[in-house]
Automatic annotation (TrEMBL):
SUPFAM superfamilies: ACP-like (SSF47336). InterPro entries: ACP-like_sf. It comes from Exiguobacterium aestuarii. This is Acyl carrier protein.
Length: 81
């Protein structure tokens, strides 16, 4: 599984999303799944999937699918398909 596939899987599992959801369009607070509780669950899924720690400052920077990829890259994860 590629790192991008692992990211997508963590996103779907963390937010309990259906397979037909367009992940690239996801933004915090713009769907019922990605609320404050969903955000914490998603962060835990991503931390587990990539063996990283996301601190409170980084949590606030993570507000969209794309910003999550950028955050992981800053944490040393090479996101590739």
């Amino acid at each position: 599984m590629s790192t991008l596939e692992a990211y997508n899987k963590a996103f779907k599992n963390g937010l309990e999303l259906e397979d037909d959801v367009v992940l690239e369009d996801m933004k915090l607070g713009e769907s019922t799944e990605w609320d404050s509780i969903g955000h914490m669950t998603l962060i835990a899924e991503i931390e587990d999937a990539f063996d990283v720690y996301i601190d409170s400052d980084e949590m606030t920077e993570f507000h969209s699918y794309q910003s999550g990829i950028a955050l992981l890259q800053r944490l040393g994860v090479d996101i590739q398909s």
